[in-house]
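Narrative of activities, Objective 1.

The group set out to show that a structural description can be obtained from nothing but a protein's sequence at a throughput compatible with the screening campaign. Below is one input-output pair from the validation batch, recorded exactly as produced.
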Amino acid sequence: MKKVLSVFLSFVMLFTMCAGLNITARAEQSVKSSFDNETGTLTFSGNGAVSADSYDVSGDEIIKIIIEQGITSVQKNAFYSANNLKSIAVYDRNCQINSDRILPLNKEDVTFYGFEGSTTQDWA
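Output recorded for this entry:
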């Protein structure tokens, strides 16, 4: 009986330890989004990578995107459904834009704002 209890407690401890690691990993990637209906502005804050899963606004509603300090990268296809997008402002000098495919196909009239010498300028 003691052996069974010992094995059971070992599994419980292992499960608890793994669950704690998952929570810690998620805390490191905490991108938050907010949307202003009046201006059509989607703002990202926090830290981590922005992807298409980082927001739940219809792409056709988005006119302007603001990426605040702390955002580390913009992933491939992040804004692929933003057909009415006019501008993206990136306020973190080190934010990496990981692909040339973050916008809808054939969307060429988007203005990028960033800092001189930033990774955004290098990408653009």
